[in-house]
Please model this.
Amino acid sequence: MSLPARVGTLIVAFLAVAAGIAFLVVNYLLASPSTVAFGAGVAPDSGRVVNVVMQEDPQNTVSTHPDWVSYFIQDPTTHQWLHTTLFSVPAGTRVHMTIFGYDGCTPLRNNFWSKVSGTIGGVAFEDGTPVSKINSWDGCNVGHTFSIPSLDVNVPMGSPGLTATLCSTSPCTSGPHKTMTFSFLAPRTAGDYFWQCRVPCGGGFIDGFGGPMQTFGFMTGNMVVVS
Amino acid sequence: MAAATTGEGFQPQAGGPNHGLRIFLIWLPIAVAADLLLYIVYGPHMPPGRMSTSAASQQFDIKIMSVLAAPVMAFVLVYAGYALIVWRHRSGDNEDGPPIHGHARIQATWITISAVIVLFLAGFGTYELASPGFAGAGAGEGPSAIWRPTGTELQVQVIAQQWRFTYRYPQFGGFETTALVLPLGKPVQFNVTSLDVIHSFWAYQLGVKADANPGVNNIAFTTPTQTGLVTVRCAELCGLWHGAMFDYGRVVSVARFVAWATTTERRLASVTAILPPYATSYDPTVIPQLNKALIKGGITGANGFYYPPNDPAQP
Model:
């Protein structure tokens, strides 16, 4: 092989390796779902209400993991459902959550998390009915939870029931579901407050807590409090 | 080379300085001062503090280790400094030093001191491990504790789960809470377990660190001796939010603890009613309420049990 050919081969090989590394960095290390900003125009520490709308689905057909359970967040401006679990709210506001529960049921491994905590009034509303707990061991009652451990917020999500024909294309726009509403106070300290689901719903992963349970855009995320 | 390392080691040459004595006289006050500072001044502030019996034991151990190590460090530094100053290479001195091979007294001293240190540490370590009051202090002793503190222990079950600790108090109706509250001066038996992966319950100021394994009860004892806040962290990498798996416990007076426990027992009665009967470890497959719920709800898919890697499919 001539000298120019050898140099050319080396350059091509180097570029191929560099491109591979760049692909890995961009797609796996730097990739992150977008953060949906709520409360535009709401001043921090104003105590005003910020409405956050989410849904949890039995699948995520808009991702590369269509069989993973997933939350979605509704963009407050366009009202489109976004494949993300990151959202921001102004500090010191009253966050009013509406979560549509489209997924079926799975009993909590620790039924302690059937209890509603950290919300204003210590209750959540399941299809408008106030509840202080939803016993996940009393039938097909609970699909998931929405929990922010550092704020002691924990709300079990009602399930449409075992016999319901669940929505099969996400984000769901129709089909049987429960509507959970509740409010809590956003902290006055800016920062990231992670949230998670406590139901072992990561099917196909050991103990049910892998896969979607530990991946942004599915069953865990951050509430970014901005000041 | 300077004539310090002669065949007689530190022995002075005829008419020369006694380097060994010089080094000893420099080292001695430094070592004594370092030990006094470490033991008296810094010692009471060494981690993990003295908030419990087990923490105080650990602090004492660390103090002793520091007091033993400081003179060694001082000797190394003094020797190195002395060598750089006194035995440095001088212009025109290209002579190699005489070998010290065959110096019986140095060899005997070295072997004797090494043997004494190793045998002392072996005996001391064995005593620490085997004696009541020391063995496994704070480290978790597995399901069968080889020693117990005197007196009636407060039972506290530590339940680790991704990514939060909860605590059950079986002597107060078995309520479960996210708050760790302990009474001052009372022995506590932690029963540490996990509901999913391996965690580690690390109550830093109490000097307690015990692995939390699913299906296993790991016992650790302590007796809080000061009121205040206790930092609780997971000390075993356990998943995405491992770094956020911490909370703060409190040690309060006995009266305040009893008031808190009875109030909390009453407040959480409706939640306690839907918990499984208290057990020192947790196996979801044998919890009667959960199995009844599966039958009642007709649930055959995701059932909250411990899943194998490829199961279950989502319902």
